[in-house]
Design goal:
single chain; alpha+beta; five-stranded antiparallel beta sheet; about 15% strand
Length: about 350
């Protein structure tokens, strides 16, 4: 896959003008801003448009598989199509009060590519995450169980991701190699103690058994990439979720685990009380289901830390540090990257007993 120049204003205007939609007709593109994270393979643009019949408005234009690559090395064959399929399916309409997706999401086809157009909810996503807001998000995340309960057939769709907790399992060998190499890296050798390195090796070796246990847990609709960057609480307290490329079916507790795992790395403020968040999620889930699923939620939560979280940090995370990809970055950015690797792995180890 090769990189492509981002869609320009004229191309976006042609796409919008050729498909009737809530953005209006005869649109003029006023501005285009690149929001692509560099971690995914999609072009993500914030576009301001004006139309004679609809006035000015802000939209997110997303083009999956535009050509970006990263060390994440996704091997998910359905990644490029899944978000479009999600918005075309009946699942967004089944999300209960308390959960929202970007309004007016529309999937278009233009020159053989899918284009996803949706209202810009940046104002919600830019609200600061705090421990109190995270507690609300934990309860709201439990609501993802509702669509599968009301329409179980929709969760049988073949395009849904089935083993998101193992999405980056192919990085395990690299994780082992990176851990072994730390002793020979002057700037990284103090990242973990020898005992912690042994424990992390053991957790990587336990991935297959963790995945086997996760498959036996009660299943729920999962966002699959529920991190602070992909979520925000609106003024009404609803949890707004974007970036559904990893939407799928997974164990209860998994989405909360991904949120907590990357809370600090993705801008969350304050220290989280993880057991309290898990308890809030487990109680909300148990009330929805009508039986106590707190133990099952705890195992799904721990699995997210010990598979998804460790695979990302010890694989591409440590590889980036060892290859010096942050060498030109400001010292604070380099320090934050290493702090996330260290703190995220140690938090994962703290849940090993629960798994």
């Amino acid at each position: 896959m090769t990189d492509h120049a981002l869609p320009d204003a004229e191309t976006i205007r042609a796409v919008l003008d050729s498909h009737p939609g809530p953005w209006g007709t005869g649109v003029r593109v006023l501005s285009v801003r690149d929001l692509s994270s560099g971690l995914g393979q999609a072009a993500v643009l914030r576009v301001a448009v004006a139309a004679p019949d609809a006035g000015a408005s802000l939209w997110i234009v997303k083009v999956p598989a535009w050509g970006r690559q990263s060390l994440l090395d996704s091997r998910d064959d359905g990644l490029d199509e899944r978000e479009g399929r999600f918005f075309r399916s009946g699942l967004p309409g089944l999300l209960p009060d308390g959960l929202t997706t970007p309004p007016d999401a529309t999937v278009l086809s233009h020159h053989g590519r899918a284009w996803i157009i949706m209202r810009d909810v940046g104002a919600v996503l830019q609200r600061s995450w705090t421990p109190q807001a995270a507690l609300v998000a934990a309860r709201r995340t439990a609501l993802l169980y509702v669509p599968g309960e009301s329409r179980p057939d929709l969760l049988d769709a073949p395009w849904l991701e089935r083993e998101g907790y193992a999405a980056y399992a192919h990085h395990r060998d690299t994780g082992h190699e990176n851990l072994d190499a730390l002793a020979h890296e002057p700037l990284l050798r103090t990242l973990f103690t020898a005992e912690q390195v042994r424990a992390l090796h053991a957790c990587l070796d336990a991935s297959d058994s963790l995945v086997t246990r996760a498959k036996g847990l009660p299943a729920t609709l999962v966002h699959g990439d529920l991190t602070p960057r992909n979520a925000g609480l609106d003024p009404a307290g609803d949890l707004a979720l974007i970036d559904w490329e990893h939407a799928g079916v997974g164990p209860v507790g998994f989405d909360l685990g991904t949120f907590v795992s990357l809370y600090r790395a993705f801008g969350g403020h304050g220290e989280l009380d993880e057991p309290a968040l898990l308890d809030a999620y487990g109680r909300a889930l148990s009330e929805l289901v009508g039986s106590d699923l707190r133990a099952e939620a705890a195992l799904g939560f721990a699995t997210a830390h010990l598979t998804w979280g460790l695979h990302l940090r010890l694989g591409p995370g440590l590889t980036a540090a060892r290859q010096g990809l942050y060498r030109a970055a400001p010292p604070a950015e380099r320090a934050a990257h290493l702090d996330d690797i260290r703190s995220g792995c140690l938090r994962a180890l703290s849940w090993a007993a629960a798994a």
